[in-house]
């Protein structure tokens, strides 16, 4: 179909979900838990929403890899797109994270699964930049056009332009950075809340880019290959309309198609004319996730797309054993999960 729309994704099922107090200061989209609701109630409701997203994706033909997380010190682990991205040709990137309590969201078992079930040639790890105070939070900080090879990035302390340039050099993207602010002059903390790029359509809050010349350059670059651009308002961005992602799935008849996946809240904010433009190329899939959106992210933040070639099923076990041999300190099971020390001793 398209390099832009992966047909497989990674989701993290975080059983201890809560809005992260360490990110509240600069995430204007984050909200407080309703008064009187216990942490356990919030976490249980969020878990149900995570399962609903996984079920909705499977129902439209997307391959979903779900990883459970029971660690109470990782409140934002439901958003894996901030620490890992995958790229055609077998490349994986691991990113430096701004909030210290988010840095241990990076998981070896996720990387091992990718190596065992998909063709991974190289993993580029930028997380060593964290002690220097340099951050680039993955496809939250960047919105990637995998077709035209452009990395759109709103400048912020979560999207350092130096590491953006380094990433673009390593992964052959053209960097396109810009300033983006809300009506109060507050910088947009993650580019993926203000827009997304699909194969034939893009959603973008161009009005949040104050520099008129740069705004028109972004508009032109988004539409250069005939892609339709749906301009979002700041009000729609606050409803998470920009936090969508294009995937490849199937119609009820079994035909492959593009999907534009977003939250039900985001879908409700769109005007009929905007929906019509999106539906010229994509089937909209909307899932209600109000609890997760309290953390300042929505459906796109929950999805780490897999832009890698899948290994044939009939050779995956043998190739997995090769991965085990290479990674003796971190062996994996045939399904790509780490073997813990007790299991190794029992074996």
From TrEMBL:
SUPFAM superfamilies, alphabetized: Pentein
Residues spanning the membrane: none
InterPro entries attached to this UniProt entry: Amdntrnsf_FN0238 (IPR014541)
Pfam hit, one: DDAH_eukar
The name this protein goes by in its record: Amidinotransferase
Source organism: Nocardioides aquaticus
Origin organism lineage: Bacteria, Bacillati, Actinomycetota, Actinomycetes, Propionibacteriales
């Amino acid at each position: 179909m398209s390099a832009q729309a992966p047909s497989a994704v990674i989701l993290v099922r975080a059983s201890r979900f809560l809005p992260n107090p360490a990110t509240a200061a600069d995430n204007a989209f984050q909200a407080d838990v309703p008064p009187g609701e216990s942490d356990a109630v919030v976490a249980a409701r969020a878990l149900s929403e995570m399962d609903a997203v996984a079920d909705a994706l499977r129902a439209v033909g997307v391959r979903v890899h779900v990883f459970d997380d029971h660690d109470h010190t990782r409140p934002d682990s439901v958003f894996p797109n901030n620490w890992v991205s995958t790229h055609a040709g077998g490349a994986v990137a691991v990113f430096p994270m701004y909030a210290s309590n988010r840095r241990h969201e990076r998981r070896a078992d996720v990387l091992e699964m990718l190596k065992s079930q998909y063709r991974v040639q190289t993993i580029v790890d930028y997380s060593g930049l964290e002690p220097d105070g340099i951050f680039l939070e993955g496809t939250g900080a960047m919105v990637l056009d995998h077709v035209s090879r452009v990395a759109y990035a709103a400048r912020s302390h979560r999207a350092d332009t130096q590491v953006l340039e380094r990433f673009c050099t390593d992964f052959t993207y053209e960097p396109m950075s810009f300033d983006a602010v809300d009506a109060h002059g507050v910088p947009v903390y993650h580019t993926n809340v203000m827009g997304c790029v699909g194969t034939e359509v893009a959603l973008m809050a161009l009005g949040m880019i104050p520099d008129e010349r740069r705004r028109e350059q972004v508009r032109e670059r988004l539409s250069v290959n005939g892609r339709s651009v749906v301009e979002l308002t700041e009000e729609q961005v606050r409803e998470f309309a920009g936090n969508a992602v294009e995937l490849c799935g199937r119609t009820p008849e079994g035909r492959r198609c593009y999907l534009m996946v977003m939250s039900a809240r985001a879908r409700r904010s769109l005007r009929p004319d905007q929906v019509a433009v999106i539906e010229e190329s994509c089937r909209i899939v909307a899932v209600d996730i109000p609890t997760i959106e309290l953390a300042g992210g929505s459906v796109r933040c929950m999805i780490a797309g897999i832009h890698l070639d899948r290994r044939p099923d009939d050779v995956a076990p043998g190739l997995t054993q090769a991965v085990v041999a290479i990674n003796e300190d971190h062996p994996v099971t045939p399904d790509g999960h780490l073997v813990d020390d007790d299991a190794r001793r029992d074996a």
